[in-house]
Amino acid sequence: MHKNSMFARATPYLFGALFIIGLIAPFAVYPTFLMKILCFGLFACAFNLLLGFAGLLSFGHAAFLGTAGYVCGMLVRDVGVTPEVGIIGGTVAAGLLGWVFGVLAIRRTGIYFAMITLALSQMVYFLVLQIKATGGEDGLQGVPRGNLFGIIDLSNNLSMYYLVFAVFCIGFFIIYRTINSPFGEILKAIRENEPRAISLGYDVAKFKLLAFIISASLAGMAGATKTLVFQLASLTDVHWHMSGEVVLMTLLGGLGTVLGPLIGAATVVSLQTQLADSVGSWVTVIMGVIFVLCVLLFRRGIVGELQALIRRAGIR
Amino acid sequence: MQIKKLTTLACAAAFAALSGAANAQISGNTVKVGVLTDLSGTYSDLAGSGAVLATQMAIDDFIAEAKPAFKIEMVSADHQNKADIASNKAREWFEREGVDAATELVTTSTALAVMKIAKEMNRIALMSGPASTPITNEQCNDVSVHYTYDTYALANGTAKAVTKQGGDTWFFLTADYAFGQALERDSSAVVTANGGKVLGSVRHPFPASDFSSFLLQAQASGAKIIGLANAGADTTNAIKQAAEFGITPKQSLAGLLMFISDVHSLGLKNTQGMYLTTGFYWDLNDDTRTWSKRFFDKQKRMPTMVQAGQYSSVLHYLRAVQAAGSDDSAKVMAQMKKTPINDFFAKNGQIREDGRMIHDMYLVQVKKPDESKYPWDYYHVRQTIPAAEAFQPLSESRCPLIKK
């Protein structure tokens, strides 16, 4: 991504405008729907950090989303901690899992990397299915939203929304800072030309591992928050479909763009919600067609194409 | 302050004046019933659009019979057998669309998810489709009714009857997840209690399509009965493959969760002689036939027990709303529990404190192809299991609502 001065100047305004929209949105749109978009948006952004900026295609990100969801659910429901502790617990669990996955997976690249992450995440799926504590195919039901810091009642949808919004902003800020730091620049260098980065003296494996852990933790943060919103962690969250869905969200929105994954997540979630009533399980087929069209016709994704359009229009 | 109070009073007075006396308690003067079911997946045959039709029939019949002063609306959605979709949809219905009762809810995981949300939002969940017993045990609550059947009743009916009729050695083919394991456990207990012996069991992954190695193990066990502790496509696949391997009719299969729609799609040739337990059979008596023919005219299929139970539960709910003069969940639940259910589906059915609706169940045997005289003539009714015996007794209940 080459720096465009127009973008650089416009970015703070754009983010400011989005932030304000985020603040007033729940008064116009159904808050639970918005919370779903934000959770998946954060998940996709976390995934994008890995694929878009480090060039690592993980096909096992559902494991982080799901594990954090289950850990958070169990902490809040069975141990009885407050929601913020649950989210932190879930995030840490996903980070640790990410470390294990990362150490094993980053030894290989390309398709082998993807397959290793897929295999590991299928193991997690199997564990979740078989362990008694996770409720098997019934999922982890009846997770209370609880009181934030023990004070604010989250069963109110508006307070829950602002918590989710805050979590999203924190996650997004972490990602934004990571991308725009020297660390992020090195990640991009590794993505573009790994041997060259090695020859420049960078310990590539270490950078990749760290990126993997950050991505996994943030995916976990999204998963933990999602569990609180829906008061449920289910097998859907750890299933490989979910790993595929996040790829779709990211590609549709714009791989390697900062806002793309959020837009992609919003598009996919809206489509799923709209289509669920009219076509049921055919949603999967329609999503597949959209994916194919996206790959064939607008490979840069929604945000990517928009950026290219602006650039072509010659605004500098 | 004074003015505010006065305005509140005035508003309340105006509101009271506007709403009629008979239906003062019904929010928006509308009772809204939501049908949340599987409209496109594995269970769409046994519940699905048939359940939506049954709901509409119940609403139409109720309007004709009671001429209610309130309006009744129905919404339906496909939960795709996923707990997260079901929970999202139910939440949206309760929060935004003013749905008073979420109904049907086939698949235990979706049912459990929706029950929780119904409890939280103080609405009602009427469950006709799901099977597992935790719904009225560990997970029970006071706004939920489990209507048609459950795994206890199925295991109790089928396993007991088969064991008593000489099928005293069993081998289980079990879907390897909580539901299958529970069904195997319940059934094993029944087999042993009735003097039978369980020779072994094999767990197959869920879902599975190739049952050959599992069936061969079952064959090698030499058990007289192979108990199928699975459901839906797993059961039908296992039955088909057992016929191909020539396991049946030397050994008999016992389908522990089977619906008339499964028998219909497998054909009598593959299922003849099997015992199964059902809460409803369309060809029981004149009442069931009359209703089922009405259903058949619209759906071109005979109703399953889930669809018949769905009609009955919605009708019972609407009658309770009318009688209570309110759509307040506590009042309607009290009314529903206090009134016995008498319609074509259940005779003297009763909703217990734990939410379990108890009614007579039927042990049936699938007819041989040459015994079937007309379309959908599939079952010999071998035994009526009285309500009191069919379901788990309250003394064994693990529901916290039951005070012992």
What does this structure look like?
The complex is a heterodimer of chains A (316) and B (404). With 316 residues, chain A is mostly helical. Chain A has one domain (5-22, 30-312): ABC transporter involved in vitamin B12 uptake, BtuC. Chain A contains 13 helices and four strands. In chain A, the strands form two sheets. Chain A has a two-stranded antiparallel sheet. In chain A, a hairpin with a 3-residue loop joins β2 (147-148) and β3 (152-153). Chain B folds into two domains: 26-149 and 285-355, Rossmann fold; 152-278 and 361-387, Rossmann fold. Chain B has a five-stranded parallel β-sheet with strand order 2-1-3-4-5, sandwiched between helices. A four-stranded parallel β-sheet of chain B has the order 7-6-8-9, with helices on both faces. The longest helix of chain B is centred in the C-terminal third of the chain and has 20 residues, at 305-324. Chain B starts with a helix and ends in a 14-residue tail after the last helix. Classes of the chains: A mainly alpha (316), B alpha/beta (404). The A-B interface holds A 30, 32-33, 36, 129-130, 135-139, 141-142, 155, 157, 230-232, 234-237, 273, 276-277, 279-283 and B 39-41, 77-78, 80, 82-85, 87-89, 91-92, 95-96, 108-109, 112-113, 116-117, 120, 132, 134, 139, 176-179, 206.
